[in-house]
Design brief:
single chain; alpha+beta; Aminopeptidase
Length: about 150
């Protein structure tokens, strides 16, 4: 794969359009209005949430990563607070050139500055591509969990 020139920086309010265009590709089941509301909510609480965006040399948005600081229990972690990768996406035509790694490095630096010593994430058990990405980014699998629910009747 040829070298790709890109920059990574924290998302700014004027980036919401570019950010939402990438979020739509990752979370296609979410409406445009919900994406806009969610991005505004994340930007409003920069002590808890971090989002970084990657732009190509011609200023096209090509990837993003969102993370949050969790103070509650995070599966597989031993400390608190924990930096949690909520989502990451890189355009298919520029994958495997270090963009996801650069996004996670930026998120990790942000997390360290917010007193986090562990960086966690999750994915579905059957999403082997995402699992491979996490391993390539330096994450280690800690546990597999199956969630259950039961309806309560009054």
């Amino acid at each position: 794969m040829p070298s790709v020139s890109f920059t990574v920086r924290a998302v700014l309010p004027h980036d919401i359009g570019a950010w939402c265009s990438l979020r739509r590709l990752l979370w296609q089941h979410v409406s445009d209005d919900e994406h806009i509301l969610e991005t505004q909510r994340l930007l409003a609480d920069q002590h808890r949430y971090a989002t970084f965006i990657a732009f190509s040399s011609d200023s096209a948005p090509i990837g993003f990563a969102e993370a949050a600081v969790h103070h509650d229990y995070v599966n597989g972690c031993k400390t608190s607070p924990v930096l949690f990768l909520e989502g990451i996406y890189v355009m298919p035509n520029v994958r495997r050139v270090g963009i996801a790694k650069a996004l996670c490095a930026a998120i990790g630096q942000w997390g360290s500055a917010h007193d986090c010593t562990e960086f966690a994430s999750d994915t579905q058990v059957d999403n082997v591509r995402a699992q491979a990405l996490h391993c390539a980014l330096g994450f280690e699998e800690t546990e597999r969990v199956v969630f259950f629910r039961k309806r309560l009747t009054c």
